[in-house]
Amino acid sequence: MLEDKQIIKLCKSGYIDMLEILIDRHKDSLYKFCYHLSQNKLDADDLFQDTWVRTMQSIASCDEERAFSNWLLSIALNAYRDRYRKTKRWLNKLTDFFSNEEKEAALHNAPSHAPPSDEQAVDNELREHLVHCINLLDDTFRIPVILFYFKQMRYEDIAEILDIPVGTVKSRLNSGKSKLRKLMEVEYFE
């Protein structure tokens, strides 16, 4: 089985039909990402298609040493931003990468079907409050927090996807955690 970087080299050499292998390999994760960004099927379909068109147009500039999946997500994120930049709404419209079920599963690790004890009820309430507070964060901080803590992505991968320096990722994570801590205290005790 060919690795992504080998396929990219072949595409650069003129075997553009090899891109079909990359499409087949990455289509599910890309579509899911597009759907989470746009929050509806029609926009997700358009974004998915636009991302592959842009990928085909710029495959010659792809760095084979860079993870193709990160490069592809960057293209999708940039395509999404371009769609909303004209109206200055992309930061407000960029939504969580993960559904509430995925966030809950990540927070709970293993859901229980037994009736919750008093301690579990308090834990569930705190988890729900955490998810609520994460959703209150500005996207500038929320997206790195989710990518780091829920997807366990490395700083370098987050930096690559968001097209920002690693130091900025660390700074946004620290600021995001600080803002989240304050939100948790203020929101919970009001």
From TrEMBL:
Q: Which residues form the RNA polymerase sigma-70 region domain?
A: 22-89
Instruction: Name the Gene Ontology molecular function terms of this record.
Output: DNA binding; sigma factor activity
Q: Which SUPFAM superfamilies match?
A: Sigma2 domain of RNA polymerase sigma factors, Sigma3 and sigma4 domains of RNA polymerase sigma factors
What CDD domains does this protein's entry cite? Sigma70_r4
Q: Which UniProt keywords apply?
A: Sigma factor, Transcription, Transcription regulation
Query: Would the keyword Transcription regulation be found if you checked this record's keyword annotation?
Result: yes
One biological process term in Gene Ontology:
DNA-templated transcription initiation
User: Where in the numbering of this chain does the RNA polymerase sigma factor 70 region 4 type domain appear?
Assistant: 130-180
So what family is this one in?
A: Belongs to the sigma-70 factor family. ECF subfamily.
> Know the name of this protein?
RNA polymerase sigma-70 factor (ECF subfamily)
Q: Which organism is it from?
A: Anaerobacterium chartisolvens
